[in-house]
Amino acid sequence: MEYIHSQEIPKTDVLNGIMELHKHVFEGAELKLVELTEKKNLLIFVAVDSNRIVGFKIGYEYNDQTFYSWLGGVHSDYRGKGIASELMHRQHEKVKALGYQKVRTISRNKRRAMLLLNIKFGFDIIETFISEKGTHKIVLEKELS
């Protein structure tokens, strides 16, 4: 398994792999390029197996002290192999090196494995809310020490 990261929108083959994997992980939902271009201090990590993108973690600056871990997922064929943990670890190490003091993310009860991984990695639940679509959301933050 190879892990790579980029602080900008990646080359076309990597970007296409992320977009296809996003559809797989998020029940057909499309990740639009414009969504990536609008993010300040974008940071993308991917897990690659034989030129296939099998995991990704995307985030951006929430404010000058906090990094927002926005999207991530691992292909169902590769789950349970520690890929999500490795991507999260690498993301946290990088954002800490970039000077951020906290990482924030939003999860859902429906995505229980991700919620549990966040808690395992030291995130605290700081609030919950109902989205405009009526979905219950859980806001988590972690202090980077």
Task: Describe it.
- The model has no long low-confidence stretch (mean pLDDT 95).
- This protein has 145 residues and is α+β, with helices and mostly antiparallel strands.
- The chain has helices at 12-25, 33-37, 83-97, 112-120; strands at 2-6, 43-49, 52-61, 66-74, 102-107, 124-130, 136-143.
- The chain has a domain at 2-102: 3-Layer(aba) Sandwich (Aminopeptidase), CATH 3.40.630.30.
- The chain has a seven-stranded mixed beta sheet.
At a glance:
The chain is of the alpha+beta class and 145 residues long. The protein contains four helices and seven strands; from the N terminus they run βααβββαβαββ.
What is the rounded distance between the termini? Answer: 28 Å
Subunit arrangement of the protein: single chain
Largest sheet: 7 strands, mixed
Question: Any idea of the CATH topology of the domain at 2-102?
Answer: Aminopeptidase
Strand content: 35-45%
Q: Poorly predicted ranges (pLDDT <50, ≥5 residues)?
A: none
CATH architecture of the domain at 2-102: 3-Layer(aba) Sandwich
Rg, alpha carbons: 14 Å
Helix/strand-derived category reads alpha+beta
**3D shape:** globular
Order of helices and strands: EHHEEEHEHEE
Helix content: 25-40%
Q: Supply the CATH class of the domain at 2-102.
A: Alpha Beta
Number of strands: 7
Q: What is the CATH superfamily of the domain at 2-102?
A: Gcn5-related N-acetyltransferase (GNAT)
Q: Averaging pLDDT over every residue, what do you get?
A: 95
Strands of the biggest beta sheet: in what spatial order?
1-2-3-4-5-7-6
| Number of separate helices | 4
